[in-house]
Amino acid sequence: MFLVLHPVGNNAIRMLVKAMSDADALHSFHTSLAYHDGLQSKILPRFVVEQLKRRSFPGIPKQKVMTYPYFNLARIAAQRMNFTKLVHNASGRLSVDKLYHYIDSHVANYIEAQPGEQLSSVYGFDGKCLTTFKRARKLGHIRLYYEAACGYTPHVARVMAEEKELNPAWQTSIPVIQPATIERHEEELHLADHVIVASSIVKNDLIKHKINKTISVIPYGSPQISVSPHVSGSPQASGSLQASGSPLPSVSMAHHRPPLKVMYVGSLSQQKGISYLFDAFIKAGGHQNLDITIVGQDYSLGRNKALAGHLKQYQWYKSAPNSQIIQLLKSADVLVLPSLTEAFGLVVLEALSQGTAVIVSDQCGASDLIVHGGNGYIVPVRNSDAIAEKLTVLDQDRDQLSAMKCAAIETARKYSWQQYAASIRNSLGIEHNGISCQ
After folding, report:
1. pLDDT per residue over 307-355, tens digit each?
2. What is the pLDDT of residue 319?
């Protein structure tokens, strides 16, 4: 039986836990908050209930979901009241790292009280399970599974250090990875028996750095497929984006055609390559030629003035429920994710499922799914010219855009959550333990 711990959870976590639960292989799932309809929705403030609804885990028996809510409720309240120092990523008393440690320590205490025959495996995530792994290792009978959902941390830290030198103007948006964090991740990896990753990029990083573990590559799954892709304007329309400050050729735009609808979804941090994203938008004509929507929290908490200036020009959602993001993607033409380092990028599959073409960097794990020129484009990392050029191509040739949108849906069909569930169960040996996977 598997114990899974994750402080907040997301759609991939839901599907992982459900895959175990459906096969009667889930001992318990441990997280900070979990929403169940009931009295809490009537007595808590509305903004708290809205946050809690994002932490629902449908299909998981309520008695198997263990929560440790107080720290995260305080964190949500501090965010709501703009107490930025309290929730600061590195030094805040309610930082996300402290939330990880809080949940980890509670779960470590929990497993000591569990009978050995009931709990055979622990499934943890990078930076979030060291104390639990140590306690489980002392017990001796528990197998440790480790998902490197953020990639290989020492590599990520090196990329961020390079970016600090290359792009100092965006320093406040560059994640600070402390030596203690790297050490923690390395120790978790050392303790693990089996490592799960979502892309070949992460697996290759681990192998390159001589992480001698069993490593399974299991891509995430796609949400429900859109029936038909939306394409802005007429497929037969021709024309070009008006480039600004770019070596791209300047061609008059067909005014009768709607602008290309472009989206970015993710944390507004430099790890995601956002300075290159906004540079590309400028080179492709900015809001005059592109209909741009940004969804994501500002990592710098308002300290990056350059970023603040860009965000004023476009439609920006600081956060949105997944259902709203899916609807936004469905109406978009292209998603751009120019990450400097990205273990996967679940939003890429979400975009493909809605018939949205994608432009990703060659350091984004979800590039495993992209056929260059087929369902999207793969561009060199840190290359705003390449992004702008591909946006121009998609605006000029709406026939190609339409074909890409159809190809995007066909790609998403190959990566269902049902396929993910089967792959994860097979990788974890659940089927071989005689447990039904139906």
Report:
1. 999 999 999 999 888 889 999 999 999 999 999 999 999 999 999 999 9
2. 86
The predicted-structure confidence for 375-407, as pLDDT tens digits, reads as follows 999 999 999 999 999 999 999 899 999 999 999
Residue 330: CA atoms inside 13 Å, Cβ hemisphere, count?
Answer: 12
Under 8 Å between Cβ of 125 and 97: no
Residue 363's nearest CA partner among 163, 190, 96, 147 is: 163
Element at 131 (helix H, strand E) = helix 130-139
Handedness of CA 171, 360, 424, 18 (dihedral sign): positive
SS3 61: coil
**Of the candidates 77, 38, 30, 79, which has an alpha carbon nearest to the alpha carbon of residue 57?**
30
Burial of 273 (0-12, 13-18, 19+ CB in 10 A): buried
**304/199 Cα distance (integer angstroms):** 31
Enclosing H/E stretch for 316:
strand 315-317
Q: CA of 300: how far to CAs of 54, 197, 224, in Å?
A: 23, 28, 33
- Which residues, in sequence order, are bridge partners of residue 377? 359
Query: Rounded mean pLDDT of the chain?
Result: 86
Taking the mean position of all CA atoms in its chain, how far away is CA 157? 18
* Distance between CA atoms of residues 282 and 242, nearest Å: 10
pTM: 0.84
Whether the Cβ atoms of residue 125 and residue 183 lie closer than 8 Å to each other = no
For helices 70-80 and 96-112, the axis angle rounded to 10 degrees is 170
Structure tokens at 269: 């941090």
Structure tokens at 31: 């997280």
Mention every residue, 6+ apart, whose C-beta is less than 8 A from residue 434.
none
Length of the chain: 438
Q: Is 367 exposed, middle or buried (0-12, 13-18, 19+ CB in 10 A)?
A: buried
**What kind and span of H or E run contains 291?**
strand 290-295
Cα–Cα dist 185/148, whole Å: 9
Q: Token pair of 49, please?
A: 């209930």
Compute the C-alpha angle 132/136/142, nearest 5°. 130
